[in-house]
């Protein structure tokens, strides 16, 4: 055990012999679940703060048969372009999520990115505390539980995170963690590769929507990139808590990778389903901005993460949205003039939307529902 852990152990007071955490343990000011499990490695029961109400917990679920799309079909001169565009378009409207293969991001780069994230979480707690912030709009922040500041909510989640902005790099790279020493170089290379892929997808999506003008690619090209690295340590009682609550992402397209440990679930047709990792593929999610832009033709996917008893899970999601000062609204070309095809969402400055989505404790698609002009949607629950 490091001196670090010993000093923070004494800071939380005496604990009993039953491998329980001290009664005065406070998860809202703690250094996260990784530190908790390292401090109490024999923990048999999770602290009561992490036990979530039944309605928010996951029951065993079936495997999702996610659409699998070969992105080599988008390469210049490919005979399969029209077919691939159609596959992306159907996946975005029917599922809001798909698996991409032959995506053009080197396997080694994906492995390096996950290793850099792991290296960051392995830093001493002081290094992580230095990046913690209660401001959800801070361009770099590290924390635990939901994205909202921990003190703002009642149920705690079994997850630590590092979030930061990516592109445009010159505005942010100096704020990124400087350790592990390769962090900035690897992350930058990975974010460049992911963004290139996302812009190819945006062009394909515009083609699928038959947009004469490609405002989507332009908006994402000039827009922001926000990455979240998530660390879900093994959990002694995984059935009583969750790694991440159900939510949809705020951006246009999110690209998600993980360390091969399952835990992601997606909601489809009202049911939660497991999206088990498939080596070499990555997950692409439709986010709320794309749902708004397409006036609801494409649906942002609700997703969440469960934890497990044996293995640490690490995931890295990279969201791509328009510029923070952009007013987001349905694209004029996708809104009809008659009542049945009118605008289904109001407009909002993207920055304000991100703030409300990131601060949401209710999660689900509540932030998007607040923008909907259609009236209440199907409620999101656990199950
Ligand atoms: O860990 C996962 O698989 C989900 C992560 C996620 O949804 C996010 O970071 O927004
Ligand atoms: Fe997400």
Automatic annotation (TrEMBL):
Keyword Oxidoreductase among record annotations: yes
GO molecular function: metal ion binding; oxidoreductase activity
InterPro entries: DIOX_N, IPNS-like_FE2OG_OXY, IPNS-like_sf, Oxoglu/Fe-dep_dioxygenase_dom, Plant_2OG-oxidoreductases
Name used for this protein in its record: Fe2OG dioxygenase domain-containing protein
Domain (Fe2OG dioxygenase) ranges: 220-322
Keyword Protein biosynthesis: no
Family note: Belongs to the iron/ascorbate-dependent oxidoreductase family.
Transmembrane stretches, start-end: none
A Pfam family per the record: 2OG-FeII_Oxy
The organism of origin for this protein: Colocasia esculenta
Alphabetically ordered keywords of this record: Iron, Metal-binding, Oxidoreductase
PANTHER family: OXOGLUTARATE/IRON-DEPENDENT DIOXYGENASE
């Amino acid at each position: 055990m490091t001196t670090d852990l010993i000093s923070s152990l004494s800071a939380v007071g005496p604990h009993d012999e039953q491998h329980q955490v001290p009664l005065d343990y406070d998860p809202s000011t703690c250094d996260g679940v990784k530190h908790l499990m390292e401090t109490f490695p024999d923990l048999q029961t999770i602290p009561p703060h992490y036990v979530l109400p039944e309605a928010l917990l996951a029951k065993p679920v079936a495997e999702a048969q996610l659409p699998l799309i070969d992105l080599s079909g988008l390469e210049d001169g490919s005979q399969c372009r029209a077919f691939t565009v159609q596959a992306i378009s159907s996946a975005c409207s029917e599922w809001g999520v798909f698996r991409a293969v032959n995506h053009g991001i080197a396997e080694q780069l994906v492995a390096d990115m996950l290793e850099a994230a792991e290296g960051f979480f392995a830093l001493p707690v002081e290094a992580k505390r230095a990046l913690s912030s209660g401001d959800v709009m801070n361009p770099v922040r590290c924390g635990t539980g939901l994205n909202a500041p921990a003190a703002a909510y009642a149920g705690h989640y079994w997850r630590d995170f590092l979030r930061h902005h990516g592109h445009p790099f010159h505005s942010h790279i100096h704020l990124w963690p400087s350790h592990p020493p390769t962090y900035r170089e690897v992350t930058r290379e990975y974010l460049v590769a992911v963004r290139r892929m996302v812009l190819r997808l945006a062009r394909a999506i515009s083609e699928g929507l038959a947009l004469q003008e490609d405002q989507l690619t332009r908006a994402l090209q000039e827009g922001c990139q926000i990455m979240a690295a998530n660390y879900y340590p093994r959990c002694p009682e995984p059935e009583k808590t969750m790694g991440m609550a159900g939510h949809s992402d705020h951006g246009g397209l999110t690209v998600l990778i993980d360390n091969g440990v399952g835990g992601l679930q997606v909601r489809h047709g009202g049911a939660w389903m497991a999206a088990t990792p498939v080596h070499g593929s990555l997950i692409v999610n439709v986010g709320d901005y794309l749902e708004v832009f397409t006036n609801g033709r494409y649906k942002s996917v609700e997703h969440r993460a469960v934890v497990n008893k044996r293995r640490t899970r690490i995931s890295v999601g990279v969201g791509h949205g328009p510029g923070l000062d952009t007013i987001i609204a349905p694209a004029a070309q996708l809104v009809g003039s008659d009542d049945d095809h009118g605008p289904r969402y109001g407009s909002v400055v993207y920055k304000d939307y991100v703030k409300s989505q990131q601060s949401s404790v209710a999660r689900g698609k509540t932030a998007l529902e607040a923008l909907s002009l259609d009236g209440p949607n199907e409620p999101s629950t656990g199950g």
